[in-house]
């Protein structure tokens, strides 16, 4: 109950300070202020959720097979949890992990991304104000040069019992190797390569709206952003035409603090270069630029929202995650073909599809090799839903009633001689 009360107070302080916290996010990573405000409320909701879950960590009494024994199952906190978070959601990726850890009774050491340490420190200040004891929520900011060394220490120190990481698959694999030495509990939310399938039966206008939200939120820099659009032959041309018009009409590149802005800058020069490389490769193999395609006139890290058609599965943008404002469209003919293309990757975080055929909805939802499916919906993240992937997209789940289990150990107690 004490943990629940403190987490609830932390939640309230986040809501009270939402505008300041949002400004910090926009200053740190460039996302539009409206999106940053949305992230803060989403972040705070995890503290509220786990404040409630803290009091629902139930064990079990299991019927024994012999008369003189009783079997109990207890749930206990794993211990110190190291929390390593990315720059694209510098607040939400912390609270989604830390809320669960603190609710379970663990203490945490947070290593925020080197690009966005201020959000983590601001949350620490509010944690202090909420009465969370010193030493329970700890933050270690570090430079890009020191990131690998700090990550290794967190993963190898025997005092750390648990690692929770959100970031690239490549980095996740390195951390897993480090954690193996002391057989730590691990949660990994790694890279995605989300397919967005639009079937002939879909409501095209709804699909376009979902595509816009799914692809261009945070300028395409989210783990669950659509990376490959698969559109069935019968509605392909109509979808591409409407999608291009929606991009040109509704998306505005600019400073994150400008109220009109929907697309802020990318995080750094390296991110811009990757988008450019993917576009150049696709065009060299026959893809067509429908809209966008180059750096924005604002310069530096700003890039035009881009739509490509005539895309094939041999192009780089359909083989690896772009993490930028690039939407490549592949035309397909049959449901089986779409599922085969969608599943022909080694990751599986999120997947989306639009259809009005109930039988098809069941088939495709079950066959997509991803941890999360959006059916006629482009935004699926919520505090109530279990967030996580399959294949090389990760281990474990965050949020939901399942999220707290990642920070608990089961202890079997056998009472004999009764």
From TrEMBL:
<dbReference type="GO" id="GO:0004777">
    <property type="term" value="F:succinate-semialdehyde dehydrogenase (NAD+) activity"/>
</dbReference>
<dbReference type="InterPro" id="IPR016160">
    <property type="entry name" value="Ald_DH_CS_CYS"/>
</dbReference>
<dbReference type="InterPro" id="IPR015590">
    <property type="entry name" value="Aldehyde_DH_dom"/>
</dbReference>
<keyword id="KW-1015">Disulfide bond</keyword>
<dbReference type="GO" id="GO:0009450">
    <property type="term" value="P:gamma-aminobutyric acid catabolic process"/>
</dbReference>
<keyword id="KW-0520">NAD</keyword>
<keyword id="KW-0496">Mitochondrion</keyword>
<comment type="subunit">
    <text>Homotetramer.</text>
</comment>
<dbReference type="InterPro" id="IPR016163">
    <property type="entry name" value="Ald_DH_C"/>
</dbReference>
<dbReference type="Pfam" id="PF00171">
    <property type="entry name" value="Aldedh"/>
</dbReference>
<dbReference type="InterPro" id="IPR016161">
    <property type="entry name" value="Ald_DH/histidinol_DH"/>
</dbReference>
<keyword id="KW-0560">Oxidoreductase</keyword>
<keyword id="KW-0809">Transit peptide</keyword>
<keyword id="KW-0597">Phosphoprotein</keyword>
<protein>
    <recommendedName>
        <fullName>Succinate-semialdehyde dehydrogenase</fullName>
        <ecNumber>1.2.1.24</ecNumber>
    </recommendedName>
</protein>
<comment type="function">
    <text>Catalyzes one step in the degradation of the inhibitory neurotransmitter gamma-aminobutyric acid (GABA).</text>
</comment>
<dbReference type="InterPro" id="IPR016162">
    <property type="entry name" value="Ald_DH_N"/>
</dbReference>
<comment type="similarity">
    <text>Belongs to the aldehyde dehydrogenase family.</text>
</comment>
<comment type="pathway">
    <text>Amino-acid degradation; 4-aminobutanoate degradation.</text>
</comment>
<dbReference type="InterPro" id="IPR010102">
    <property type="entry name" value="Succ_semiAld_DH"/>
</dbReference>
<dbReference type="GO" id="GO:0005739">
    <property type="term" value="C:mitochondrion"/>
</dbReference>
<feature type="domain" description="Aldehyde dehydrogenase">
    <location>
        <begin position="1"/>
        <end position="413"/>
    </location>
</feature>
<dbReference type="InterPro" id="IPR050740">
    <property type="entry name" value="Aldehyde_DH_Superfamily"/>
</dbReference>
